[in-house]
Structures are given as structure tokens and as C-alpha cells.
Fold Magnesium transporter MgtE.
Amino acid sequence: MGERKIEMLLEQKKYRELREELIQMNPIDIEEILEELDIAIALMLFRMLPKNVAVDVFSYFPVDKQKEIVGCITDKELEYIIDELYFDDMIDLLEEMPANVVKKILLNSNQEERKRINQFLNYPQDSAGSLMTIEYVDLKKEMTVGEALAHIKETGLSKETVYTCYVTDSNRKLEGIVSLRKLVVNEENESIKNIMNRDVIYVNTHDDQETVAALFRKYGFIALPVVDKENRLTGIITVDDIMDVIDKENTEDFQKMAAMSPSEDEYLDTDVFSLAKHRIIWLLFLMISATFTQRIITRFEDVLQSTVLLASFIPMLMDTGGNAGSQSSTLVIRGLALGEVHPKDIGKVVWKEFRISIIVGIVLALVNFLRIYYIEKVNIYIALTVSVTLFFTVIASKVIGGILPIAAKKLKIDPAIMASPLITTIVDALSLTVYFTIASLILHI
Amino acid sequence: MGERKIEMLLEQKKYRELREELIQMNPIDIEEILEELDIAIALMLFRMLPKNVAVDVFSYFPVDKQKEIVGCITDKELEYIIDELYFDDMIDLLEEMPANVVKKILLNSNQEERKRINQFLNYPQDSAGSLMTIEYVDLKKEMTVGEALAHIKETGLSKETVYTCYVTDSNRKLEGIVSLRKLVVNEENESIKNIMNRDVIYVNTHDDQETVAALFRKYGFIALPVVDKENRLTGIITVDDIMDVIDKENTEDFQKMAAMSPSEDEYLDTDVFSLAKHRIIWLLFLMISATFTQRIITRFEDVLQSTVLLASFIPMLMDTGGNAGSQSSTLVIRGLALGEVHPKDIGKVVWKEFRISIIVGIVLALVNFLRIYYIEKVNIYIALTVSVTLFFTVIASKVIGGILPIAAKKLKIDPAIMASPLITTIVDALSLTVYFTIASLILHI
């Protein structure tokens, strides 16, 4: 709505009025506006924001902007931001800061906190520990609902979520959870013990983020508790962070399926050399793998020499085989990722793909025969050779496309690499061998 | 944990005891167990569950199981389930039921409800309206915090979420929202008017689910209000339903990018003919498009006849071009889907892809030259022809791969179809033309 107005105020350099506009807005939208501006003006406006708003806005900036800001503000301002950020955002920030800044921050914190920061910095990337935050509501089972609500009233504003509360014993062991909904609908003097849910679903600090995302998907949670090896509650993960994880995991799959090393960086923000680096290794590997197809063609040079026309169908055969195989592998890879297909289903998958490929193979071979025999007026033996090859290629590629991702999963390799590029390379070699063998037979070369 | 125990109880047909085990569990896990069982036993156990648990379990069954259950239970049981289901789950059920069942249900409901059911059944698929539910907490701005909490205490258990409450005027117009967190941390006599957030982000009933998902992603909401054309609050969408939407949208993109018509059905549950149908049209289209490559090769038949060896590098050139192009198009398609790349960035994308392709092209061409000249002992002129073609192919395919998805977006076509299969077909024709042209030049044929 106010976009025009904000632009106008900017042009007229009415920064005071601009500030009044900004603080009415959602911090995420403020961040978006500041990110578009010249860094000097953005920084000035950022420092004009009320402190609590500034911290929120700061937490939404991308890492490189955060670094720039940290480099330009006073130690006192930095200290305030560090103190007020949610613990998980603070850890994310520290992970990206230069060593001297981290050291300064650690010096300013007490021993207990320092220990905890170090512990969090050591969780493996992509683990539950690296996603969690420590701002949760901690209740005791002896409390009444009234006491619990009073506790939330006092501390609730600084918690990441208050909608699921965690009941722990004196050793921080997780005994149960109780939702704020339950607290609100129950009587004040009811005991937490009686209304808490003891059948808690939780994850361990070292569990992979994919496991965590799968639980959120299945149960529709708002938050999930994270415990350490001794079953002590160490943090919680909230659903908004999981949406990011799901997006990242999907992006990773898309990248792997297009033969790239995965990267979390946004496309437009990544420099040309990093992008080239992520692409070149797979391209080289696949290019050199094509030596096989080259050898096959060289081996059948005589056949080709006698009927050069055969060469003109090679691209169509290879592409159709590759496409047919990628269709199958894509569905299986996606099924595995969403937990809809399991390695034990391999028999079902092969049988299904085999039947599909018969249908698809017949239709494609028939259309192709009609096209090249009647329209392109190609010799009938060549038309037959091409169509029969097409039929077998479709069957082979669909079955291979169905098997390879599951085989990868069984071998603990990421199924996503068994996608179009690799399948195409394998299917190419196969279809060329079939092609020239059938050609030798039918054309008696 | 209790998996062994449940199996044992099933084997020993101790259904009473089994029931006691089940009702301790999360309804989602009960559903999972029942789904694995023989339908007769599953149905018996289902009917033994307490009614409120049964409704929850029912809502998690896949549609075909729901249909089976509806076919086997009494009208009275069905009526109870329909009454107790959340409105969105009920609508989803009605959409899939045979007409006579829907009619029976409509007859049993009052006029007001019937009107509303009909309205909901008419929202376009994939619209915000089709995702929303009506069980939200409705507050008035004149209420105090104490009154609001009392209202939630009374009605909260039957609402889909109580964590965001909606403040409406007498015409059902949305005036603001207030979180349960705010209610709990404020004093009892504080007025809702003073603590509600008036800057509400909402969607319209006819907005696409992708728009809704983008808002959840950006702001990390738990729920989002949906209003009609007159700005009246008609329902809410909760984050758990959005996680499903995100998964479905991604699956759709994966399918389109592998040249399939998208389908929401799970792979293993879909019959062979439907799967074949979704794959065949694109395969046919791409196969017939390959006529171009065929024509190109036929046109250069003389070149090929004089140096048949050239044919052996065709697969490698085509595959490398296809792979290089898919890498670029995948990143751009994904960037567009996540809102990280916009159509206006087309210049940046082309410039970026051009620079990347120079680096990648030089490396690939060099490695390829060294390999085929020194290892495969190919004639230097042919080695040069192949390597120079490779260089230009990589450049062309990366630039095309970067442009096409953005062009599609500008033309309001789904960018996801500009993926590997289509890019490969285009790049094939291009690389073959370059190949034979360079061959004619270098080899003087």
C-alpha cells in the first residue's frame, strides 16, 4: 500500500517521517525495504528504528548484510542485538562472523552462556541441534494451570513460541508437553500433571533435519522438542524454521537431479566462479562417461558407413530413451523423498514400470513408424529398425529409471543423483547397442 | 515402541486389549496401523474407538479408505463423523463421495449450513477457499482480554487453532487479529481494541494456493485469514495444510520438469494406465520435435558419409549440451518458484550464464581435446571440430537455459516446462548445426 509514499519520502529525504511509516510495518517488510536501499541510507534508517524493532529486522537480513551492519555499528549496539536475538538466530550469526567478533562476543558473556554457545556452534550442520532454539516455556508437573499461565504471562514475550509448553523434572528430563490451548480451556486449579501429554514425540540433537521435517509433515506440529543423549530437553524447533528446511531440501534435490553439487546460496547472490564450480565436475564426469557411446558407434562404423541415414535417428532415439527413463526415475526419487515409496517396494516398482513401458513403447513405436514410413518415406526396413529399437529402449529406460534410485537408497547414496543426466548417459549406451544390433539383423549388414 | 505388542495382540485376536493400546496413541499413528490391516479388521477396530478419536483417525485416512468406511458404517455413524470433522476435512470428503451420499448429507443439514457447504464446494481447486476452514476464534474489539479468554475457554476445543484470534465487526468485516500469546500476557481488563494488530495480512478466497504458501513462507505464520470480495472473514488457513501444499507444488514441478502431466496421486497407488497417460503426450511431442535433428543430420549426410567418425561424437555433444542447459534452467526455474529470481532479472541472468558458460565451456573443451587427441588418438582436425563445437554448445545451452524459463513466466506459461527435456531437444538441433558447420569449415568437406 504505502510503497509510493515510502519512495516519495525517500526522494524528499524526509527520514523522520519515513521512520514513522516504517515502524507501523511488519519487520519482514521493513527488512525488504531496507535491503533495496543504498547501504549508507539503509544503515541510517536501521539505527533510527526502536531497538526491539531493529533486532527483529536484523534477524531477517541475509548474512552478508548482517556482516556489513555489524561492521558499522558500535560495540554497544552489537551487544544489544546479540542479547535480544533468539538463540538460534544468534548462533547463525556467530557462525558467519569473523573470528575476532565472535571472540569479543564470547568475552562479553558469562561462563555458563559461553559454554552453551560453544556447544551450539558444534552441532553438525543440518542436524536438529543446529535448528533449535532455547527460548521455550518450561513448566513443572506440580504446577497448577493458574501458576503455569502466570509463568507464561511473565516470560512469554521473550519465548520463540508459547503455544507448546514443556514439562521437565529437576534433571531437565522431558516428562510431558501441554499446549497453551489446554491451559486456557482448563480450570485454574487443575494440575499440570493431569492434563499434560506424556506420549511426547521428540528428536535428538544429532538427528538429521530431514527426519525432523518428516515428523512435522506427519503430525502437523507447531514445535518439536529436542533432547540430548541423556534425554534432557535442550531446545525446540518451530514450524517456520522447518518450512525453510523443506524448501532447502527440495532445492538440493532439484540441483542434484540436474547434475549439480548442491548449494544453499541464492542464484542471483552467488558469484560466477562458485556457480561454475558447482556445475563443472558433474559435466566433466558425464562427458567422459560418453566415451562408451562413442566406442559403440565406432564399433559399428561399418553399419553406419553403409547406411548413413541411420545416424539421423540417433538423437531421437537417445532423447526419447532419456526422457522416458527420467520420468520413471523422477517419480521414484520423489516418492522416496516423501516416504511414499520404500526400498522394499522395488518389486512393485519394476513390475509397474514394465507394464507402463509396454503401453508407452507400443504407442511411441507405432506413431514413429507411421511418421517416418508414410510421411518421411523412409525405407521400410530402416523404419522397422528404428521403431523396434524405440520400443526396446523405452522398456529398458523405464525399468532402469525405476530401479536405480531405489538401488541408490539401499546403498545409502542419495537417490536424487539417479536422475535425468545419469539415466540418459546409461540409456544412450544401451539404446545405441540395441539400435545397431537390430540394424545388422534387419538390414543384413 | 509398542509395535511388537500390537502385532502380538493382533495375532492373538485380543481386540479389546488392542483398543486400549490404540487409544493411548496419536490418531495419526492409529490411522497408520489401521491402514496396514485387512479392511474387515480395520473397520471393526475403527468402530471400537471412542467417537471423538474415531473422527480424528477418519480424517487422516486417504480418500479411498474413507469411501470404503463410509460404505460400511451406519447413517448414524456417518452423521456423527460429518458433524465432528473440521469443515475443510468435511468438504474434502464430500468432494469425493458419490452423489447420493452427498445428497443425503445435504438433506440432513439445515438451510444455512447447506448454503455454506455448496459455497465451499464451488471454490476452485487450488484456491485459498478450497484450503480454508471455518473453525476460528471470532472476537469483538469491545471485549476485554478476560472476556476473550472466557470465550476461548468455552469454544476453544472445537477450533482448528486458537493461537490466532480474529476480530470482526457486526458485518463480519475483519478489523484485526490478536494472538493468544498477547491475550495471555496482558491484563484481564485490557481491551482487545488496544492490543489487536490492525495491519492484518490476509488472502482472498480465489487467490491461488501458491500465493498463500508464499505468504506463510515469508512471514512464518501459524494461520492466515481468508476474506471474500466484500472483505468479510470467511475462513482461515493453518500452517499444517500449507506444508501439504508446498509438497504438492514441488511434486508438480518435479513432474513437469521431467516432462509429465502433473498428478496428485501417490505413485504406488496409481494404476498403470493413468501413469502411462500422464507420460505419453510429452514423450510423443518431444519425439516428433526430434524431426528437426533428423533433418539436420540428413542435410549434412555428405559430411557424415565422408567422415563417419564424426557420428561417434554426436551423443557426447548432445548430452553435454543438454546437461549444461538443464543446470541453468533448473536454477532459474527454482529461483522463480521461490521468488528469488524475478522476470525483471532477465538481463542479470543472461550475463551471469554467459560468463559461467565461458568458464565451463573452456574447461570442458580443453579436457575433451586432450582426451580424444592424446588418448583416443583422433585426427587433430576432428578433435578440434569436436572441441570447438562443445565450447559453443555449452555457451548456447546455458544462455538458452537461463532465458527460456523467464520468457515462459513472462508469457504466463509455467516455467517448469522449460526444463531438461525441452531444453535438450532445442539444444540438440543447435549443437548439431554448429557441429556440421564447423566440420565443413575445418575439414573442408
Remarks:
- The CA atoms of residues 194 and 430 of chain A lie 66 Å apart.
- Strands of chain A lie at 137-139, 164-168, 174-179, 203-204, 223-227, 233-238.
- DSSP finds 23 helices and six strands in chain A.
- Residues 3-122 of chain A form a domain with the MgtE N-terminal fold fold (CATH 1.25.60.10).
